[in-house]
Amino acid sequence: MTPILRPAIRADLDALVELEEVSFDSDWFSRRQLSHLILRAHARTLVIIQPDDDVIPSAPAVDDVMAALWPAGSVERDDATPLRSVLGYGTVLFRRNSRRARLYSFCLHPESRGRGLAQRMLTSLEQLVIAQGCTQFDLEVHTGNGAAIALYERHGFEKCGRLRDYYADGAAAWKMRKALTLDSPAPVAEELAAGEAGEAHPGPPSTVNAGAA
Fold first, then answer.
1. How far from the centroid of its chain's Cα atoms is residue 111's Cα?
2. What are 1-38's pLDDT values in tens digits?
């Protein structure tokens, strides 16, 4: 079946921990940290799931952006997510009384890259940012992660600064930013259906986790 995109839930935690461990050599998030990201009030986390053929469709409970990201065929909200079924995830942080949002974590399983999933997930995260009324989307990426930088530039992000000694190993990061328009955001359903080519992954600051494409 085609991978689906939906909001992360508590039942995803075991699969997310496994994804972190296979995607990063170090500095991966703990189960407690991932739980905080999923449940915290000022963050939104989406996951890419490879569903089983016998999954029962689950309808959204609320008519909003997050509910629209819960397509037919996704797992039930109270079911435990099978290990190895989470192909990737992305987390966006929001600030109170601010129109800025930050891509905090962005991770794709090494075996799932090259399928357009990163572009698909990034597009949907941007739609969540727009739905929150934000007009600026920021991120940091390792200066040596050419694949991720290319992905972000294709998506409209531009370099706006260089951060020295940004990572635990002393490596630098590019600060990248995209100005958003709130007038006519693309429908979420259309963005979810788009699976454009291109995979990448931002690098993390000391308190953030992400991998390399």
1. 17
2. 789 999 998 889 999 998 988 887 666 788 889 988 88
Helix axes 146-154, 117-131, angle to 10 degrees: 50
* pLDDT, tens digit, 9 for 90 and up, residues 113-134: 888 999 999 999 999 999 999 9
137 in Cβ contact with 177 (< 8 Å):
yes
Cβ–Cβ < 8 Å for 175, 136:
no
Lowest mean pLDDT: which of 50-54, 111-115, 123-127, 164-168?
Answer: 50-54
Give whole-number Cα distances, 131 to 65, 122, 207, in Å.
7, 14, 26
For residues 38 and 20, give the distance between their C-alpha atoms in angstroms, rounded to a whole number.
14
Using alpha carbons, select from 108, 112, 125, 94 the residue that is nearest to residue 192: 125
Count of CB atoms within 10 A of residue 21's CB? 11
Cα 178–chain centre separation: 16
Q: In Å, how far are 19, 22, 24, 34, 203 from 28, measured between CA atoms?
A: 9, 9, 6, 10, 12
Alpha-carbon dihedral of residues 21, 116, 195, 126, nearest 10 degrees?
Answer: 60
Tell how strand 136-142 and strand 158-163 pair up: unpaired
